[in-house]
């Protein structure tokens, strides 16, 4: 029984084996994930799209090796030298005299790091950063529109532009045409050549000069006739035909709602911005075609672009329901539930007009959650929860699979909370 082995020898841009790099990353996945998680705490979120330098503990990169023990005899061939001649015995190096490659510095933590480090790319960094995360409850909906198309090979055509000529198919057609048009002449030419050879092999007394001249003349006519056929003709040309086909995809939209009222300190706003930036990178990585709607609110709500959402400053009171109403209106106007997967994330410090919190609960339960796949709420505050949190707890009890809420106290909570909100559900 024979076994077949397929070896991937494709090279990446730096002339290194891509398959070997992937195997290496899988082998040291534990250390890479630890380094990526540490980078989240050390870096700013806006710096997340860069690579990272990874160090591997020396105990994990040791490989089995063979060495020579004490005693024994071995034969080797050395280059010419001035000290030894054939037959001399060379003493072995004394044990323990080797020179190590470490820096000789002790570690007070009981565990050292090897000098070996390597870098992971931006895509690899984001891959490990967002591993096991997904937008929950993503379902396939009808396509909103056929805006995305892909060109696929759909055979050949007789007309086209020179750039799309299929050389192999054109040459095959030309060869077939020449065979078809000159087949009879070629068969006759072979026959004439055979008769001519037989006639020339006869003795001079039996050889017919008139027949030889006749055969030579016919041979010349046949070769001329065959030679007139063009090597390739316009009729032979074939062009690659590409058909434009719609590319099926999921239509998804993510609503980002943030409180920018006077109760939101600059530190609180910064944490909210970092959470949404992390969320935005996650969405962009997982979905090439996804709409993101930014809504800021204080006493009134406003749909803004990304720049204004993250960096403009506003003051005022807090009426959270204004943002929820605007989101509901935008969904009804631009994102029909039959065609879109709708997600929402809301950031707030928990302050709200007390009479408005029950309105928020009613809007979520009756209008928004029946239309969305997932709604996540983060409350950025070290204080005790207020009326808005308790109203949202009632919402979570009614919609446990569609609504999630977490508290963030400082910047160190951003990434763990993000993973908790968007972790992949086991089905």
From TrEMBL:
Transmembrane segments: none annotated. InterPro entries: UPF0229 (IPR006698). Residues 95-104 have a biased composition (Gly residues). Residues 58-113 are annotated as: Disordered. Pfam families: DUF444. Belongs to the UPF0229 family. NCBIfam families: PRK05325.1-2 (NF003707), PRK05325.1-3 (NF003708). This is UPF0229 protein MED297_14610.
């Amino acid at each position: 029984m024979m076994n077949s082995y397929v070896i991937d020898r494709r090279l990446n841009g730096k002339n290194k084996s891509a398959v070997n790099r992937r195997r290496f990353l899988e082998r040291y996945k534990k250390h890479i994930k630890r380094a990526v998680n540490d980078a989240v705490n050390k870096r700013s979120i806006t710096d997340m799209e860069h690579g990272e330098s990874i160090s591997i503990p020396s105990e994990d990169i040791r490989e089995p090796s063979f060495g020579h023990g004490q005693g024994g005899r071995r034969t080797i061939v050395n280059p010419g030298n001035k000290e030894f001649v054939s037959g001399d015995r060379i003493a072995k190096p004394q044990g323990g005299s080797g020179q190590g490659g470490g820096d000789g510095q002790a570690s007070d933590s009981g565990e050292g790091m090897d000098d070996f480090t390597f870098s992971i790319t931006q895509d690899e960094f984001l891959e490990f950063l967002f591993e096991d995360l997904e937008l929950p409850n993503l379902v396939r909906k009808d396509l909103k529109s056929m805006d995305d198309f892909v060109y696929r090979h759909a055979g050949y055509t007789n007309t086209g532009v020179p750039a799309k000529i299929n050389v192999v198919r054109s040459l095959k057609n030309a060869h077939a045409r020449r065979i078809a048009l000159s087949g009879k002449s070629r068969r006759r030419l072979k026959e004439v050549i055979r008769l001519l050879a037989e006639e020339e092999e006869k003795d001079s007394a039996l050889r017919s000069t008139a027949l030889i001249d006749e055969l030579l003349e016919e041979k010349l006519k046949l070769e001329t006739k065959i030679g007139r056929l063009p090597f390739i003709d316009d009729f032979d040309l074939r062009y690659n035909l590409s058909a434009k086909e719609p590319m099926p995809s999921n239509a998804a939209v993510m609503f980002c709602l943030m409180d920018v009222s006077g109760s939101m300190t600059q530190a609180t706003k910064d944490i909210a911005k970092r959470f949404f930036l992390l969320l935005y990178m996650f969405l962009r990585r997982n979905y090439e075609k996804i709409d993101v709607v930014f809504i800021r609110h204080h006493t009134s709500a406003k749909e803004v672009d990304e720049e204004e959402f993250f960096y403009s400053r506003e003051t005022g009171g807090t009426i959270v329901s204004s943002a929820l109403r605007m989101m509901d209106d935008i969904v009804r106007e631009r994102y029909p539930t039959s065609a879109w997967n709708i997600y929402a994330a809301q950031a707030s410090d928990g302050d709200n007009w007390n009479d408005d919190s029950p309105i928020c609960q009613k809007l979520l339960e009756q209008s928004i959650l029946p239309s969305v796949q997932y709604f996540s709420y983060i409350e950025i505050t070290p204080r005790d929860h207020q009326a808005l949190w308790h109203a949202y707890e009632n919402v979570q009890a009614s919609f446990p699979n569609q609504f999630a809420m977490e508290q963030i106290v400082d910047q160190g909570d951003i990434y763990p909370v993000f993973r908790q909100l968007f972790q992949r559900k086991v089905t």
